Amino acid sequence: MSGAGSIRADVIGSLLRPPELLEARKRYAAGEIAAPEFKRVEDRAVDWAISLQERAGLPVVTDGEMRRESFQSQLVEAVEGFAGHTIDAWLWGDWHGDAAVGDKNTERPPELGVVGKLRRRRHLSVEEFVYARARTDRVVKVTLPSPSMYANLWSPELSKEAYPTLDGFLEDVAGILREEVEELVRLGAEYIQLDAPHYPLLLDPKTLRFYEERGWSFDRWMSRGVELDNHVIGAHPGVTFAFHLCRGNQGSRWLVSGSYEPLARHLFANVNADRLMLEYDDERSGTFEPLAHVPEDKTAVLGLVTTKSGRPETPEDLESRLREASGYVPLERLALSPQCGFATSIVGNALSIEDEERKLRAIVQTAENIWG
């Protein structure tokens, strides 16, 4: 491995938004401040996010997704054709939490859908990359959504005029994302991640039924969905691609539990990513046994550090778990990260910025202890 592919201490993407940014976002949406002022607040938040990751010692940083409402929101912000996309477009579902946060049900907005042919108004993440690259000497990772997760935005009723079939819609989404990757690579991006939480969500019968009602069986998701992911990734020698799988992450809650086993054989082998970012912060993810399906040309980046609480992981505990996992994938093909972002949307999670930095430091220290 070389370049970004050799990184042992990794990060998923989002960080907790500072209060100044959350307040400015509200004021900007209400028309109380103009775009130049809001952009300056966003810029300061990105500077802060990069500084936090650098202090923790990470060799790779993101912009913290400070400019996004949600990790997946930039498509509807940059592309025409969507309706009904309030923040609940990214938050709906039956969410499960521990005793501290409890469960929460959010209904899917009934008017949510793609209602017109997609037309890109601007790039999705180029601004994020170009700004962040100028402010750090570390590798900058850019995160993009997996195209088929936008099946959530296709409705058999509302979308039939613009896109009579789910396939037609997702092919256009994949085309836009492929162009985004090409532009990022042209500008010098060397590490790009696709976020694909919808695959583990298929492990839940209720969620699977929702997606099957869109017209795709489980097997179709495993085949056509991965084809679209690979179309987005394309062929870019020297650029490292990661593929992130989790089970939902909003307000310290999750959507589903279950082993990777039903997904692992096909998904791990067939997606053209170099690094598999796998959630493993508690028993919800099952055992390490599915790691036996990780091909020899891929690195398994284990998300052993939870972003859902302030639980203080220690380098000793993390090293012990990594060595346990090495029974299925050798240490030279393992790396370490948080299990997900710290703030998948502006809602965030129930932990402090101090917790966040401590967790990132524990990841770096563990990586140094194991790999030097």
Considering the chains and any ligands shown, give keywords for the structure.
372 residues, alpha/beta, TIM Barrel, 7-stranded parallel β-sheet, two-stranded antiparallel ribbon, 11 helices, 15% strand, globular, zinc ion binding, UROD/MetE-like_sf
Question: What is the element layout, followed by pairings?
Answer:
Blueprint: H1 19-29, H2 35-56, E1 60-61, H3 74-78, E2 79-83, E3 93-95, E4 104-106, E5 113-120, H4 126-133, E6 139-145, H5 166-186, E7 191-195, H6 198-201, H7 205-213, H8 218-233, E8 240-245, H9 261-270, E9 275-279, E10 299-305, H10 315-325, E11 334-338, H11 353-371
Parallel strand pairs: 1-6, 6-7, 7-8, 8-9, 9-10, 10-11
Antiparallel strand pairs: 2-5, 3-4
Name the helix and strand elements from N-terminus to C-terminus, one letter apiece: HHEHEEEEHEHEHHHEHEEHEH
The separation of the N and C termini measures: 15 Å
> Could you give the count of β-strands?
11
Strand content: 15-25%
- Stretches where pLDDT is under 50 for at least 5 consecutive residues are none
Task: Give the overall form.
Answer: globular
**CATH topology, anyone?**
TIM Barrel
Which class do the helix and strand fractions yield?
A: alpha/beta
So, CATH architecture? Alpha-Beta Barrel
CATH class: Alpha Beta
Radius of gyration, rounded? 19 Å
The total number of structural domains is 1
Helix content: 25-40%
GO molecular function, one term: 5-methyltetrahydropteroyltriglutamate-homocysteine S-methyltransferase activity
Pfam family, one: Meth_synt_2
Protein name: Methionine synthase II (Cobalamin-independent)
Domain Cobalamin-independent methionine synthase MetE C-terminal/archaeal: 11-349
